[in-house]
Amino acid sequence: MASNSLLRRALFKITLDHIEAAYRLASKAHVDIPNEIEKTGRRTIGIGPDDPWPDRNDEDPYDHVGRAYDDMEAASTEAWYGSAIVRKAFLISLFHAWERFINAERGVEDYVHPEEWLISRGHQECARPILELQKAANCAKHGPGNSCKALFRMRPDLFPGVTDANKASDARLEIGDELLTHFFEVVRKAAS
Confidence class of residue 1 from pLDDT cuts 50, 70 and 90? Predict the structure, then answer.
């Protein structure tokens, strides 16, 4: 039985490595987008990389500079939302991998927060972050509901501008790179 657990942990570590590597690649692609938007905007306007940005002329309905600025702003907004979606997708993937691993370790089918299991293995400091991971993944996956409310009560900072747990939702949930990286670290430690 112990050898099954060792093998399961080794395979889980490989799974985590793959998920995190995929996240880093996707994240890097989004980091490069602002530079690409600027290059495209400069090319569209017809200026070089060091030239000053010209003023737009909102009085002219055919102002190509103004349209280029509008296109750049729209592309930046899309990139920002895209990055947020990528982080949420990997958050969900990370929790799903953890859920499968811990259920197999404990020999159960339905996930229950493994606080006692973590404490028995000397990883009590992982209990709260894993609960936050669970609630964040469920909020991101299922939308407004009990997980979003519970997460808001634990971490209101993840819902900028929200002042009431009933208004906490997947649309208002912000998962930054630093937090997602922290969740990867906690899950690795908890599984060790």
Answer: low
